[in-house]
Design a protein that fits this description.
Length: 324
């Protein structure tokens, strides 16, 4: 009994010591996309405020792009479960299981869910020369030009790709999908009039809408947005596409098996970080909304992602657009 007690005490001391000392070296947040994109921007802003909540310990961003975010996610899933390698991922966490026939990880089983950080609304925009200036006119134009419409996106699995899929299915119209290698070239061709419409994040469209370089027709959230440039836009739901709701959210994850005391410390740090006034201001500038509900906690975060997997799986399957 004495030996068991000593062993148990040593184990408890080791675990408590790990949590108490954590973090005693830099924490790495893996972003599964290249530097400079919307998710990278969110991650870098978040890393700065997370650092403050972790006693000033360095929080480093590592970009591991490729395969629609699955390479970076796989790296974290296979990392040591010690709290020093984390993943910041967007909606791709929920859509990859349907988009990719083979993945090196299991979205539901190989991660500890820490909490959601923000949500980014999306807008339906069109080229400036489009012969429609509002949603009603756009819908008539779409009906009159079936089979002739070009719908741009930033590549397989991108936010614009997912929104475009749901938009076509909700409208009951097939469009010619034009995939690009990123948002920048897709937007460049929309500005140049080479493609007709695109559904993309406010982080990528607000400036173009404000300058009048593209026409804006609707937002993808259940409620209208409060951003001055977008406040007059109707929602697709109120415009007749009932239940239409697409936001690009970002969440934080750790490898499965990370000690609970470390997870608790990270979750507490996350909840404090997203209340930071500086962080909120930066996110508002990107058109993003900070999560203020129970999804900032592990259980509700995972429940939400599971619901998103169930939502997007049939949409992707119906479109038949997969990656090998």
């Amino acid at each position: 009994m004495k030996h068991w007690t000593l062993a148990a005490a040593a184990s408890l001391t080791a675990l408590t010591g790990t949590a108490w000392a954590y973090p005693d070296k830099p924490v790495t947040i893996v972003v599964p996309f290249t530097a400079g994109g919307p998710t990278d921007k969110v991650a870098r802003d978040f890393a700065e405020v997370l650092r403050k909540q972790l006693g000033g310990q360095s929080v480093v961003i590592e970009n591991v792009g490729g395969a629609g975010g699955t390479l970076g996610a796989a790296k974290v899933a296979k990392s040591a479960p010690d709290g020093y390698t984390l993943l910041l991922h967007h909606i791709g966490m929920a859509t990859s299981p349907a988009l990719y026939r083979k993945m090196a990880y299991d979205t539901k089983a190989d991660f500890e869910y820490l909490g959601l950080i923000n949500e980014v609304p999306m807008t339906l925009v069109g080229r400036s020369t489009l012969p429609a200036s509002n949603w009603a006119e756009l819908r008539k134009w779409i009906d009159a030009n079936k089979g002739k419409i070009n719908l741009a996106n930033a590549g397989l699995g991108a936010a614009s790709h997912l929104c475009g899929l749901l938009f076509q299915q909700s409208m009951g119209v097939d469009m010619t999908t034009v995939p690009y290698k990123g948002t920048a070239p897709a937007m460049t061709d929309l500005l140049g009039g080479q493609v007709d419409i695109m559904c993309d994040q406010t982080t990528n469209t607000t400036q173009q809408i404000e300058s009048g370089k593209v026409k804006a027709f609707a937002v993808t959230t259940p409620k209208r947005l409060t951003t001055p440039a977008l406040s007059k836009l109707p929602t697709l739901d109120e415009s007749g596409l009932k239940g239409f709701n697409v936001t690009i959210w970002h969440g934080l994850y750790a490898p499965k098996g990370t000690p609970k005391p470390v997870l608790d410390k990270l979750n507490a740090a996350l909840k404090s970080a997203i209340k930071d006034a500086d962080f909120i201001k930066r996110q508002e500038a990107l058109g993003a909304d900070i999560i203020e509900d129970s999804r900032t906690g592990p259980a509700e975060h995972k429940k939400f992602v599971e619901a998103e997997i169930a939502k997007w799986g049939p949409v992707i399957k119906a479109a038949g657009q997969y990656a090998d």
